[in-house]
Structures are given as structure tokens and as C-alpha cells.
Design goal:
single chain; 127 residues
């Protein structure tokens, strides 16, 4: 079973940057589809960014395109979310998800397709 641990959240001002990290316990990390989702109070979990199991070009939600970047370091079993030009509406708990069941090459944007989740890290952006 994969264990995921997120870190890097915090309280920042609008326009600032943060980098979130998600460390995985699984040695076959490179074979997993990895994603970032976020959930604001009273709202459903929302897709942010993801890699397919085959790697390649990641996919980002329209709301974060041009501001956020997802990357992965398979040697460190870690996926990152670089968040620039943060806005108050980015405030949420950010979760890392992983799955080895998603079809190779498919970038899944639905949270129920991911089998494993971290505990989340809070990001708060003040105006």
C-alpha cells in the first residue's frame, strides 16, 4: 500500500509562491499516476494537476494554468506542485493522490479514480 505525505503548505499573501511536495513510500512510484487535488471549506474536492502513469505532458486545471506547475522526481519518489501568483481563491487543503489502476496514458481528473491519498496540507492565501 502506498503512503503519501504532503508538505509545504502555509499562510501567504496574494501574489506569493509556494511549493508543495508529496513523498511516496512506494519504490515503484514511477508506475503510478499522480495528481494534486484541493478542497476548500464547504466545497467538493477539485482537480488541480496530474501526470498519467506513462508520465509525459501533465494536465492542469484551467483555473491554475500559467500559475501552477506539476513535476515529479522518480528518483526521490516525490511529486511537486509549484504554485506562483497565488490568489485568495487558491485557499484550500491540497491533497496528493496516486493510482496504478488508471489506464496508461490517461490523465485522470476525477478524484474517485485515485486509490491512495495523503493527509493534506493547508494553503491559505490572504488578500
Amino acid at each position: 500500500q502506498v503512503q503519501l505525505v504532503e508538505s509545504g503548505g502555509g499562510l501567504v499573501q496574494a501574489g506569493d509562491s509556494l511549493r508543495l511536495s508529496c513523498a511516496a513510500s512506494e519504490r515503484t512510484f514511477s508506475s503510478y499516476a499522480m495528481a494534486w487535488f484541493r478542497q476548500a471549506p464547504g466545497k467538493e474536492r477539485e482537480f488541480v494537476a496530474a501526470f498519467s502513469r506513462s508520465g509525459g505532458t501533465p494536465y492542469l486545471a484551467d483555473s491554475v494554468k500559467g500559475r501552477f506547475t506539476i513535476s515529479r522526481d522518480n528518483a526521490k519518489n516525490t511529486v511537486y506542485l509549484q504554485m506562483n501568483r497565488l490568489k485568495p481563491e487558491d485557499t484550500a487543503v491540497y491533497y496528493c493522490g496516486a493510482s496504478r489502476k488508471i489506464s496508461m496514458g490517461l490523465v485522470a481528473t476525477t478524484s474517485n479514480l485515485y486509490d491512495y491519498w495523503g493527509q493534506g496540507t493547508q494553503v491559505t492565501v490572504s488578500s
